Amino acid sequence: MECVVQGIIETQHVEALEILLQGLCGVNKERLRIHELCLRSSPNLGSVSSEVRLICDLEQPEPTWIIRHVGGAMRGAGAEQLSVLVRTMVESKASKNALRLFYALGYKLDHELLRVGFSFHFHRGAQITVTVSSVNKVPKLHAVDEAEPVTPGIQLVEVTAPAASDNYTEVVTAVSSFCEYLAPLLHLSKPGVSTGVVPTAAAAAASLMSDGGGTTV
Ligand SMILES: *[C@@H]1O[C@H](CO)[C@@H](O)[C@H](O)[C@H]1NC(C)=O
Predict the structure, then answer these.
(1) Which of 171, 175, 176, 178 to mutate to test the pocket of ligand 1 (most atoms within 8 A of CB)?
(2) What is the CA angle 136-69-48, rounded to 5?
């Protein structure tokens, strides 16, 4: 399972967010350039339609494909009250011909994306990953170099952490308390709950920039 929250930030404030994250995590960012193929199976072929993503970080020295399947969100047991989404997620390494395999299984390419940005990986009560990226749509088959922003001037921020059924409450707490530090710049919530940009972002960004990132938390 994984715990996840998302938010958006204007591109002009991304540098301030990076300074803040650098200060909070004490690790260096990793650049990412992720090619993502979203595949769907037709519902008439199997019992239910399903969606898988083939993902490849082109920024890696030896890019390899990963298959990711995001399952349903946890229900009941107060899941609605949590500020963080807990969901099942399966990831597996794939070979180069994975796409052909999925085509043979009856999956069709739904859309292709290129996410460009950076991420931070660190431990803070849980193994947290923060990803900041602009999401670009690939206009023609596999033409990643022609990708165009889906929402110009806006970037997606995602905070995730691995969890299990016996420790998710701990992970949810760690993720929520980390998100509070980012609150002046952006609001993070469960995926699908749109919250928009926060009004304090410009002032918070200006103060972080003039600080030079010297703030210690
Ligand atoms: C919770 O469990 C998952 C799966 O075993 C593990 O990856 C993660 O590090 C654990 N997190 C904490 C905070 O114990």
Answers:
(1) 171
(2) 110
